[in-house]
Amino acid sequence: MDKLTNSDLSTLVALRHDLHATPEVSGAEAGTSRRIARALTDLGADRVVTGLGGHGVAGVFAGAAPGPTVLLRCELDALPIEEVGTPPWRSTVPGQAHLCGHDGHMVTMLAVGHMLARARPAAGRIVLMFQPAEEDGSGAIAVCADPAFADLRPDWAFAQHNEPDIPRGVAHVPDGLASAPSVGLRIALTGIEAHACAPEDGVSPAGAMADLMTALPALTKGAFPSDDYRLVTLTHARLGTPAFGIAPGRAEVLVTCRTTSDDSLAALVDDVRNMVAARCGSVGFHITEHDHFLAGVNDPDAARILRDAASAAGLDANPGLPLRASEDFGRFGHDCPSAMLLLGAGPGPALHNPDYDFDDDLIVPGAALLLGAARAITG
């Protein structure tokens, strides 16, 4: 019953290649959203909801009897990175590319839709959620806050993400922490510009900037995923204007803070703020937060269901380790039991590498495990 035909796979792979060639980054997934909504309509979904949290799309497949709602979630957005790989379906959009596999995740979810179109759940509803803006951490929060999502609010939620660091045929379903929380901090430093011949007439932020570039990463400690783990990564720095006649009066330092719990992340951010205040001296500063990802924490019952579904799909399912990277699926777990699975993609370029490309052979096992988890609840 729950099988994909050769025709299904041919259609899905062709769509995956088209999506890969026409990526759209976080918050700009309008074209991708339209294609997904059209595909769900063509599959005969009982309801297609668009505009969720921006460009989010949900396809609802309802059973004949009342029962729980199970949400299966994937992502719409690509990355602002230039692709250097050379597949025939290489990105046609300069500076943007599907280098995390979200094109494959979308098609895997549509594969679930193909099987649901032939056999609805026995009871309740299965909601296929195509979420926008995962890469900057804003999408899940926006979807959950959207009034239109209230009618779709799930009793259970599941997701999967391909992972090149895990061997093919293996699935990791972590117990507890599944993905690390993180937040980006933009530290703007303000002094006073001066003529390059008389820098003493101004206030340069160069010293404070150089100090922070060394001191902030030194807040790192512990080994992931221990409770005391904290990582501060310097991601960008800029000083003054690119001119020879001006002593700088402005600077900017960007860091990403990462821990293993939302509480410890908040404490680390406080430490960064206190350090900046203590080290800036006569230089003014302003700190803003960006790309805030909550911790993804697998519910034990949801993890067991997902692990059983992965085993039934022929995968070696085990707890493994959580993602040190962040993933905003964790927001769905604040309202219902949820779990995320990491599907082994085997050796190859890492996620976010400029030559990464999703492996089409992951579509079948990915769809089987997601649908298996949903059917374990809805029948």
TrEMBL record:
Residues bound to Mn(2+) are 100, 102, 135, 161, 352
- Does the UniProt entry include the keyword Plastid? no
Q: Which cofactor does it need?
A: Mn(2+)
Signal peptide per UniProt: none
SUPFAM superfamilies registered for this protein in UniProt: Bacterial exopeptidase dimerisation domain, Zn-dependent exopeptidases
Do the record's keywords include Cytoplasm? no
> Which branch of life, at top level?
Bacteria
InterPro entries in alphabetical order: Amidohydrolase, Bact_exopeptidase_dim_dom, Peptidase_M20, Peptidase_M20_dimer
Q: What is this protein called?
A: Putative hydrolase YxeP
Q: Which organism is it from?
A: Jannaschia donghaensis
